[in-house]
Specification:
Blueprint: H1 3-18, H2 20-40, E1 49-53, H3 59-67, E2 72-75, H4 78-88, E3 93-96, H5 105-111, E4 114-118, H6 121-134, E5 138-143, H7 160-170, E6 174-180, H8 193-207, E7 214-220, H9 227-232, E8 237-240, H10 242-245
Parallel strand pairs: 1-2, 1-8, 2-3, 3-4, 4-5, 5-6, 6-7
Length: 253
Amino acid sequence: MSGSDSADEEGQEEAVSTGNGDLRQRIDAVQERIAKAAARAGRRVDEVQLVAVSKSHPAGQIAAAYDAGLRVFGENRVQEAQEKIPLVGRPAVWHLVGHLQSNKAAAAARLFHLIHSVDDAPLARRLDRAAAGLGRPLEILVQVNVAGEDVKSGIEPDRLRPLLEEIARDCGTLRVRGLMTIPPLHPDPEKSRPHFARLRELAAFARSWGLPGAGLDELSMGMTDDFPVAIEEGATLVRIGRALFGERISPAP
């Protein structure tokens, strides 16, 4: 290791160490907001899982968050997760919360405990083959574009049943745990409420179909700017990055 590499690593470790107090305060603040939102909705706080979105944040910061009590982390990109997960050195639970390309399906099946962003049958079949090769079921969520935005991934609501039927018929190693959505970006979190309510209603309707391998009990919705509203509308997984880790760190050129 060169002197400059050693200095860089020491600097990163110092930054993580000196920031631990702030990190713990942010975690406590987010957990308090989760608890208050659950109480407003008449729900138990343990019905809501915090997924700490660690995209672009270094392994040392994720390890510090684990040591501060967080257990579930969300990554957006398979390649970044491949590099970081071994460096974290903690038995964390990893979720893929970003869009998944079909050519990354095999790697994603190896790395992640839950994939939030399945939105077509070919991708589901690739994940199924990969999971079968690993000899274990793979848990997934189906991403639904409830707002109908052209720029967002996810299936249209009226395509949900055909996709779930294809997965039930063709993908014996996949377990559909629920649905995910990303509403349109808006400074007023109340603007997200109708989209969260729509996903909750859609999941309840889909459960009535009784499709095998589709429990549909999980609703992944809500991020830093709107997660309390999502919890009030039934979210069981909230994907929070900035409120925990601060602004994303741009990768070095």
